[in-house]
Amino acid sequence: MKANNWSGFPGMQSFKLTTEDIRKIFPEHINPISFCGWNHPVVIITETGNVPEEKALSFREILSEKENKILRKLRFRKDQNSYIITHATLRMILGKFLDIPPRKVDFITNPSGKPFLAGKHIDIHFNLSHSSGVSTLAFSAKSEIGVDVEKIDPGLDFHLIASRCFSTAENEYIREPDKDACKRFYTLWTRKEAFLKAVGMGIGENLEVEVYRKINYFSPEKPFTGRHATDFYLKSYLFNRDYLISVAINGPCNIEFFLIDPDEKGILSH
Q1: What is the CATH topology of the domain spanning 13-260?
Q2: Which of 131, 254, 114 has the alpha carbon at shortest distance from 198?
Q3: Residue (of 175, 170, 162) closest to 234 by Cα position
Q4: Three-state SS at 115
Q5: Domain spans, the chain
Q6: Angle of helix 65-72 relative to helix 77-98, nearest 10 degrees?
Q7: Which of 68, 145, 152, 198 is the most exposed, fewest CB within 10 Å of its CB?
Q8: Which of these, 247, 173, 253, lies nearest to 210 by C-alpha position?
Q9: Which range has the worst mean pLDDT, 114-118, 140-144, 156-160?
Q10: How are the residues of the chain apportioned to helix, strand and coil, as percentages rounded to the nearest 5?
């Protein structure tokens, strides 16, 4: 991975992911013990926009009644396909780990909507995100994890959004006079979402959390009252030049990336 030297606060380096950096996964490589019992976090990327519509629709039978109800509310086919592929892939991976059919994987959510496995599976932490044709699934066997992916929109009035939601220091970081201001905004935005998703808190009312520090600390036993995301490590990656992916994990670690290729026989075969 090649580091992008976006100057500013400590720890704000982001990394460019190339296809050579991401290992492709296939069924024979997915062992429930080695894959979901990792010693480090795993992030799985799927370019859902490249999955043929017919194939995407074939996975609808894997989804629960609740998921299908949400699916029916999505207006556009591309959003429906992304939702199906993301949630079906999550079910297939967790189903392999639990040794049960994907449709029988049972989820519960906290008041902010964060999903958890129902039952006594506290050693499996996961999170998901999808944006404009790319989805990410993050897994950890050791600590809470959060992930967010956003497609970079150069036409977005990000300065206006930052002025309303970001701290003074974060706005100063974004306003540095060079061409990477938009990327810096998306780096901060995805880090905020990844952190808040990791700790299971609502996004809208907590965007004031500051995420530009290298090492961040948060104690889930105490109420969240500070402005800083502390006790969590935040890492950001530029994928395919147009997407910013950030991961929040409670502790220093290496993150392994996998790319599901819809054109090959793999986990998207059933």
Answers
A1: Ribosomal Protein L22; Chain A (3.90.470)
A2: 114
A3: 170
A4: strand
A5: 13-260
A6: 170
A7: 68
A8: 173
A9: 140-144
A10: 35, 25, 40
